[in-house]
Specification:
alpha+beta, Beta-Lactamase, Heat Shock Protein 90, 3 domains, five-stranded mixed sheet, 11 helices, rod-shaped
């Protein structure tokens, strides 16, 4: 720039020499030369300074990198985990002492390995997938695997893998810890679990065996209950048949007198046949009711409470009347679900129980049994059987449903009727059977689902 200025001045003064120029122009040119010389010196100084600063900066960067590596190395060595740095090609770049200790490798030997020799189960394709996920997809992985130690013994480890950049080159950083104790604990737990399963199977077999024994016992009790009921039923049938048999006997005896008095004609014969068939049909129905009563219901079905109770009353009413016991039935004919024949057995057991209580405790007057049907709740219908037989002593109420327990004297009771009644209602039909004392008697309440 200063040369350009000097050329322009000389052109103005027509190429005169410097000493021929005016004094002030000469002083101006000398000032330009000095200024340029000073600028040149400062430029060289600046270039030297920049060179020095660049070298210091490079040195500082190297120091920072070295300090960072030293800090990272210190952290890695102090950590209670194994650290393995693996290159993208699978070579072992660096390890810490903890990793060498766990896998029993000398560090130099360790660094001669590659990842495929280290992983006991991972194939080449599997390691490449791990490498891709960490280095390309920048994912952090956590998984359990096994490493081979220097003796080719599998060491179970828990692994966390991530990306680590060293000098602008991506590496795989493996952090792992030995989980031998956890694996052993899991194996012990698995063994214990198998032992528990074997024990449970044994217990299930024993429980099943006991259940079968109890079922056989219940079947025996049911059979005994039915045999006891059968005795009562035979007595009821005897009472049921007494009147029609008497009627038939009188009709048959009347044939002889009618013949002697010449009264036998077509009308007489028709009347005799009608009377006889009516009584025979009544007796036949009694036998059918008796047979149906002892036929077990195999599956739950819908039936009507009042119809089932009336079937029993047809059988027992004659005997009750013979013992001066009045029985009444009131309420709606609700439909419920359960086992109708077993339910009838319960009604028979409870009416017989009420009859026996009345006969044992009656002072005077007629015995009373009242059966009421009502709606108990949104889930149950209720059948209440009340008698005036004096009730049950309070200290015996809790025992009344136990098997073979009876309040009857001598050989009058087997102690299984009420037990079986409760079993049928509560276990088989999923209802409830309760007992409470009321004035002058007892109240049995049956709740039946519908």
């Amino acid at each position: 720039m200063h040369r350009l200025i000097k050329r322009q001045i000389r052109r103005v003064w027509r190429d005169k020499e410097l000493n021929e120029l005016p004094e002030d122009i000469q002083e101006f040119i000398e000032l330009i030369d000095k200024t340029y010389d000073n600028f040149d010196i400062e430029k060289r100084l600046l270039e030297n300074t920049i060179s020095i600063n660049t070298e210091e900066l490079n040195a500082l960067n190297q120091k920072i990198e070295m300090d960072g590596e030293l800090r990272l190395r210190g952290l890695i060595e102090q950590a209670p985990y194994g650290f393995i740095i693996i290159t993208e090609s699978g070579e072992i770049f660096d390890v810490n002492e903890f990793a060498c200790s766990v896998l029993a490798y000398d560090k130099d030997k360790f660094l001669e390995l590659n990842a495929y020799q280290l992983f006991a189960r991972s194939s080449t394709s599997e390691f490449e997938e791990i490498s891709h996920q960490v280095l390309q997809a920048n994912q952090k992985l956590s998984f359990d695997d096994t490493f081979l130690n220097c003796d080719n013994v599998e060491i179970p480890v828990e692994i966390t893998a991530g990306k680590l950049v060293i000098k602008n080159t991506p590496h795989i950083l493996i952090m792992f810890q030995d989980i031998i104790e956890r694996v052993q604990a899991e194996r012990i737990n698995q063994q214990r679990q198998r032992e528990i399963e074997v024990l449970n199977k044994s217990l299930e077999d024993r429980v099943q065996e006991e259940v079968m024994k109890n079922l056989e016992k219940d079947q025996l009790l049911i059979q005994q209950s039915k045999m006891a009921a059968m005795g009562d039923m035979m007595g009821n049938i005897a009472h049921q048949w007494r009147q029609p048999l008497n009627t038939l006997a009188i009709a048959i005896q009347d044939i002889e007198d009618a013949f002697l008095f010449d009264e036998i004609d077509e009308e007489y014969i028709r009347a005799f046949i009608a009377l006889s068939m009516e009584n025979v049909s009544y007796m036949s129905k009694t036998i059918d009711d008796f047979r149906n009563f002892f036929r077990p219901s195999k599956t739950k079905e819908r039936f009507r409470l009042k119809d089932a109770i009336e079937d029993i009353l047809q059988i027992v009413t004659a005997q009750l009347k013979n013992n001066r016991i009045d029985i009444t039935l009131v309420g709606e004919n609700y439909e419920v679900i359960g086992y109708p024949n077993e339910f009838k057995q319960v009604i028979l057991n409870l009416t017989n129980n009420a009859k026996d209580a009345i006969l044992d405790n009656r002072q005077s007057g007629a015995g009373l049994i009242k059966i009421e049907i009502s709606n108990y709740s949104d889930q149950f219908k209720e059948v209440r059987i009340t008698d005036n037989g004096g009730g049950v002593p309070e200290h015996l109420i809790d025992k009344i449903f136990e098997p073979y327990f009876t309040t009857k004297e001598g050989n009058k009771g087997t102690g299984i009727g009420l037990y079986m009644s409760k079993t049928i209602i509560e276990e088989n039909m999923k209802g409830e059977l309760r007992l409470a004392n009321v004035k002058n008697g007892a109240l049995f309440s049956i709740l039946v689902p519908f």
